[in-house]
Design brief:
Length: 227
């Protein structure tokens, strides 16, 4: 995923749905980069550095951070300056993110090694355009560049596995919110394959029951679990 391109964040919704329905069969590894930057991209580099530093404490921290940026459109609002990034990071201390360790990792050789590994992965896979997704089994691998309808990825998994994998069903609005802390109405509609008015009615009902709340600054388009 090219984090210097706001459109790159759109693939996060697709990954959410794949993870919810096929997480019992597949594992995800996010490789983030800024290949379109040729100098003068200090904000993007700071963002990439923080994402990789968070991964050193666990990939769940980096994924949560990316989802936050996606939901709040932080990157497109030019909110990726250093002070804002650290403010977002500190808000996740309650989820186990060690801020002091994060600051140290930002300057570590381990971080440089992690960035080098991601760069080598992109080179080895001969990735020419982003976003891209690779499906890897013990015997085969398939690379898909660009974003396609969901059933294309299902077909790829079936081809590589040699059978049609079972989807994990039973998800609803509240379960998705609890799994990911927050989601947009558009994401929920895509993941649950429901019309937006149905999602909005369910969110209103959950809100009245104090089981979810709108994310501040998102004009009611993003919702989170009630803490």
């Amino acid at each position: 995923m090219d984090i210097s391109d706001p459109d790159g964040f759109h693939v996060m919704t697709l990954i959410k749905k794949l993870e919810l329905e096929y997480g019992h069969l597949i594992r995800f590894r996010m490789v983030s980069t800024v290949p379109s930057c040729v100098g003068g991209c200090q904000e993007e580099v700071r963002l990439l550095t923080m994402i990789k530093a968070m991964e050193l404490q666990g990939k769940r921290h980096a994924m949560r951070f990316l989802r936050h940026l996606h939901i709040n459109d932080a990157f497109t609002k030019d909110a990726s300056n250093d002070a804002d990034l650290w403010e977002i990071a500190r808000s996740y201390a309650g989820y186990g993110l060690d801020i002091d360790e994060l600051a140290a990792d930002m300057q570590s050789n381990q971080l440089l090694s992690a960035l080098a590994v991601d760069h080598q992965i992109l080179k080895d896979w001969e990735i020419e355009s982003l976003p891209a997704m690779t499906f890897v089994t013990r015997d085969e691998a398939l690379k898909i560049e660009g974003v396609y309808p969901y059933d294309v990825y299902q077909a790829v998994m079936s081809e590589l596995l040699g059978y049609v994998p079972n989807r994990q069903t039973g998800w609803n609005v509240e379960k998705v919110l609890r799994h990911y802390d927050a989601s947009t109405i558009t994401e929920l509609a895509f993941i649950l394959e429901l019309d937006k008015p149905i999602i909005e009615r369910e969110l209103k009902k959950l809100s009245l029951q104090q089981r979810c709340r709108p994310v501040p600054g998102c004009s009611g388009q993003a919702w989170a679990t009630q803490k």
